[in-house]
User: Which sequence fits this backbone?
């Protein structure tokens, strides 16, 4: 098992998937902040920005009620930061929109765990 001190912000409205991703990333030695919906995700991202403590990467589900993943990506880009963003969805059109909105990487759900970890390590290596 590799050990990394990458800090991730993970936003997904599926509580089971959110918990599984948190456990997986923590088992890999990463620090994980989670948000169960888009509004909470924006609040946490805002707090990180104000404290000048942005995570090395944000993972966001695109299809969420209230505040969508696309809106979160747009908000992150308006902050003017180059925060790497991985967008995930089972919806192909949403993945295209995410790429157009500024996501660095888009992954279809269900995703391959090894590919996701590889993308995380690649993006975070560039920001640390």
Assistant:
């Amino acid at each position: 098992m590799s050990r990394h001190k990458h800090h991730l912000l993970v936003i997904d409205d599926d509580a089971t998937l959110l918990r599984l991703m948190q456990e997986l990333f923590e088992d890999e030695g990463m620090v994980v902040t989670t948000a169960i919906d888009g509004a909470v995700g924006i609040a946490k991202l805002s707090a990180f920005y104000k404290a000048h403590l942005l995570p090395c990467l944000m993972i966001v589900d695109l299809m969420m009620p209230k505040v969508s993943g696309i809106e979160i990506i747009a908000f992150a880009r308006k902050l003017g930061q180059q925060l790497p963003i991985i967008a995930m969805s089972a919806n192909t059109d949403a993945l295209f929109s995410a790429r157009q909105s500024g996501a660095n990487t888009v992954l279809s759900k269900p995703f391959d765990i090894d590919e996701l970890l590889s993308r995380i390590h690649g993006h975070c290596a560039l920001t640390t």
Notes: The longest helix spans residues 113-127. The chain has one domain: 7-122. The CA atoms of residues 96 and 106 lie 8 Å apart.
